[in-house]
Design a protein that fits this description.
The protein is mostly helical and about 260 residues long. It has a domain of about 140 residues: Helix Hairpins. Helices cover about 75% and strands about 5% of the residues. Helix 1 runs antiparallel to helix 2. Bound molecules: zinc ion. Zinc ion (ZN) binds next to loops.
């Protein structure tokens, strides 16, 4: 292993070039990390408010759903009131008919009156049956409404927590973005202009990735195989090498024994 350090002059031109290449590659790798991070921050910054909107919509939809049960509850209540009134009226009618029964003069009238009472009483029975089923339904809906209320409170709590987290994330992203942007600007100053231009050009053509590692003869950018000869060359080259398939600047990285 060579004991030369950056800034220490060496008379061996090959060592010097290798050191220069290695230095530039390291800068490019760091720059790539910065660029990728910045893209990721931008994506998250765009996605988080959308996530927040979805959260709002979800809570609103849930409130709407709950409203349906409340409405049903109110409808059943008023139906119950109507039916009670109806029964009261029917009872009154039956009572009146029974009073008149004492005043009838002949059998024909008597039979007609009996019929009237019978109808009123049987109607009463029917309405009572209806009321029972309304009350049963009302019990069910009341229980649902109570459960809805509990769920709504839980949903609200969850909503507040998630909202808080998203807002905190947004703040963190802004801070991180500034930090990584500063780091990127510092790195760019250290990289030779022509190399920087080359990196930018390749990066812009390749989904934001201009420099990528190669391991076991596979380019990690396009996942295609690198010819064995080029793979060998990559490990000892003094020049920058590009992937023959995706054209990204490639470097050898032993993934089992990280540098
Ligand atoms: Zn490739």
């Amino acid at each position: 292993m060579s004991m030369s350090y950056p800034g220490v002059h060496t008379r061996d031109p090959i060592k010097k070039r290798r050191r220069l290449l290695k230095g530039n590659l390291l800068l490019l790798i760091e720059l790539q990390e910065c660029d990728s991070q910045l893209v990721m921050f931008m994506v998250r910054k765009k996605n988080l408010p959308e996530k927040l909107d979805k959260l709002d919509a979800k809570l609103l939809a849930f409130k709407d759903e709950i409203e349906q049960n409340k409405k049903k509850h109110d409808q059943l209540k008023s139906l119950h009131t109507d039916k009670e009134k109806e029964i009261k009226k029917l009872n009154e009618n039956a009572a009146k008919a029974k009073e008149k029964l004492l005043e009838v003069k002949n059998n024909k009238e008597y039979q007609a009156m009996l019929k009237e009472i019978e109808i009123a009483e049987s109607s009463c029975g029917n309405v009572e049956t209806e009321i029972i089923s309304i009350l049963e339904e009302l019990d069910k809906v009341s229980l649902l409404a109570k459960k809805d209320e509990e769920s709504l409170n839980q949903q609200k709590k969850k909503y507040e927590e998630e909202k808080k987290q998203i807002e905190a994330d947004l703040n963190t992203i802004d801070e991180d973005f500034v930090k990584w942007e500063q780091k990127r600007n510092d790195l760019r100053k250290k990289i030779p202009d022509d190399l920087l231009a080359k990196y930018e050009k390749i990066k812009n053509r390749n989904n934001g990735v201009g420099v990528i590692s190669v391991w076991k003869e596979v380019c990690n950018g396009c996942h295609m195989n690198i010819p064995p000869q080029l793979y060998n060359e990559l490990q000892k080259s003094l020049e920058l090498i590009s992937c023959p398939n995706c054209n990204r600047i490639i470097y050898f990285q032993n993934r089992e024994k990280p540098a």
